Amino acid sequence: MRILYVVPGPMSRTGTGADELRRRGAILRGWADEGTSVDIRDVERGPASIESAWEEYLAIPATTEAMLQAEREGYDACILGCFGDPGADACRELLTRTLVVGPGEAACHVAAMLGERFGIVTVTHSVVNPLRHLVARLGLAGRLAGIAVVEKPVLALAQDPEETRSRAAAAGRRLIELEGADTLVLGCMSMAFMELSPPLEAELGVPVVNPARAALKLAEALVGMAVRHSKRAYPTPPKLATPARCR
Questions:
Q1: Handedness of CA 43, 45, 47, 50 (dihedral sign)
Q2: Are residues 206 and 132 in the same domain?
Q3: Listed residue (196, 210, 25, 211) closest to 102, CA to CA
Q4: For residue range 181-193, what is the model confidence (pLDDT) as tens digits?
Q5: Are strands 77-80 and 99-101 parallel, antiparallel or unpaired?
Q6: Which of 119, 169, 190, 247 would give a disulfide with 145, using CB separation of 3.0 to 4.6 Å?
Q7: pTM for the complete prediction?
Q8: In whole angstroms, what is the distance from residue 118 CA to residue 26 CA?
Q9: Sign of the CA dihedral with 30 first, then 124, 7, and 93 last
C-alpha cells in the first residue's frame, strides 16, 4: 500500500528545512509494516507552524489541494500532518478513493481504548481551546482529563530537546496527579517526531500515545481492511459534484 504524509505548511522553507522533512519521512518508513510505502510532502502555502485556530484555517486550502493530488497519484491513504486535524472533514468530502487519517483523531481514540481518562500534552495555551473542540467533535469530551502545555512554540521544541522532554514530563505529571489522567497523548506532531513517548512512559508510568505513529498504523489498518470513508457522512460538495470540477 502507498501512504502519503502531508505537512500542512511549507516546512521545507522554514529554518528546519528539507532535512527535517526527510528525517520525518525516514522515521515514518521505519515504523511502517513491510509492504507499506510511505512518502512525505509539505505544501507550498500556509503558516510555517500551527498554533491557533486561525492558522489551522489558513492551512486548509493548500492541504486539500495536496490531498487531491495524492488521490490522482494513486495513494491509498493520506495522513494530515497536524495534531489539530485541520480540514480533515473537508478532505474526506473531496476525495473519493483515498483515505484521510487525522493524527489527533487517531491518537485520541487509541488513548480512549488504553485507559479511562486521557490527557493531552501540547505546545502553548493558544491551542488548548481548538484541541478541546477537536475532542468534543470526536465524541470523547467525557474521556478527556485535561490539556497541559509545555509553553514552547512549535519551531522551538527541537532547539533544546532535553528541556522539551522535561517540560512535557512535568505537564504529563500534572495531568496524572491533578486531573486523574491514566493515559497521555502528545498533542503536537513536532513532539511526535522527537520520539518522546518511550522516555515519558518510563518516567510517568502510563501509556503515551504518539499521534504520528497512531495515524500511520490506523491508515495501514483501514487500507488493509479495504474500507473507505462513508460518502453519506462526507458527501461530495454539491457545487463540485461533477468529477471534472473536483479535479
A1: negative
A2: yes
A3: 211
A4: 999 999 999 999 9
A5: parallel
A6: 119
A7: 0.94
A8: 29
A9: positive
